Write the structure tokens for this entry.
Amino acid sequence: MAFLTGEVTYSRGLEGVVAAITSIAAIDGEEGKLIYRGIPIELLAEKSNFEETAYLLWFGDLPKKDELENLKRDLVEHREIPQFLVDCLKGAPKDTHPMEILRTCVSMLGCFDPDKNDNSRGANIRKSIRLTAQMPTIVAYYSRLRRGLELVHPDPKLSHAQNLYYMLTGEVPNEEISKLMDVILILHMEHGMNASTFAAMVVASTLSDMHSSICAAIGALRGPLHGGANERVLEMLQEIGTVENVEPYILNALKEHRRIMGFGHRVYKAYDPRARILKEYAERLSREKGDTKWIEIAEKIEEVMIREKGKKGIFPNVDFYSGIIYNLLGFPKEVFTPIFAIARVVGWTAHVLEYLQANRIFRPRAIYNGPLDVEYIPIDKR
Ligand code: CMC
């Protein structure tokens, strides 16, 4: 076999490369459509909730009543984390980013998992449910410790979405905020072959374990080109500060070839349907809270960006309006990306479960463009 030195198709960043077959979700990037198991995201956001949509993604169909009750019970039962982890959270440097904490704690949870030596489908489903139940607790506990606040323990009476809000803020959400929390989690739950899902699948394809896959996914999600963008959006809004500053700020950033966070997508060349829904909620919540400053700045950014870049297919993505919502809900900005992870763990684990049913190790190649026939020079002659 010859060295691979050039005459093959190469796609930077794997653009357009098909890496798997899935029935979990699909994106129509031209039309700006997203479906989970065939159901449009708009319908799920309007009618469903976290637990039901998680069941759909993991098992393929919407649950019957008893199936939903069983899943809810399992998620509630596994919310608490081992005391050892709570002690680790207390001992961690307060300037650690919660995504680092999440990655580290998920790794540690693997050591405590009752199925840790079992890579069967049944064990992996149980691990998926446990991880989904535990991740909000890790994030909320650490976030409160970081803010010098008392821990708020999970409340078994609350739904997954309500409980996340409760553990972060110490308050039980009203009906409207409960719905919003479900919508946020549903919209972030799954998105096909994105970088973090692919990272999880690459690890799983070696027949490694579920916790290792999710650690890899958390690491990938953290970057500002992926889930880390939501935190940067709020920083950008704060830096811009006023509606009047938007136009010069954006034009200058584009002139300097800087990325505007919360815009653009590898697959969507139209408005991201998730952003459309979040924008409506962000507008409503801003009005209700009587704090419209950030949404006004954001909408002006959108206007300028679509005018300047819309013809290149650059529109707001899911990360653009979510930060405004989290900010209005009183969440500190370092939990924005962890909330993405808390939702996306369902998609990550669903893809791992699906891929393992017909597993083949991921092993792409690279074109070699280094020298050939190089002589080995002994160390004293170099
Ligand atoms: N601001 C300004 N220009 C942009 C942006 C942006 N946000 N995104 C893409 N472009 C331009 C880019 O400069 C390039 O222009 P040219 O052809 O003149 O060189 C062109 O669009 C194509 O960019 P690309 O980097 O080849 O696109 P990609 O598919 O590799 O990257 C992306 C996709 C999401 C990484 C990119 O759009 C980006 O960096 N966006 C900002 C970060 C962000 O919001 N990420 C969240 C993505 S959605 C949620 C998630 O997955 O987490």
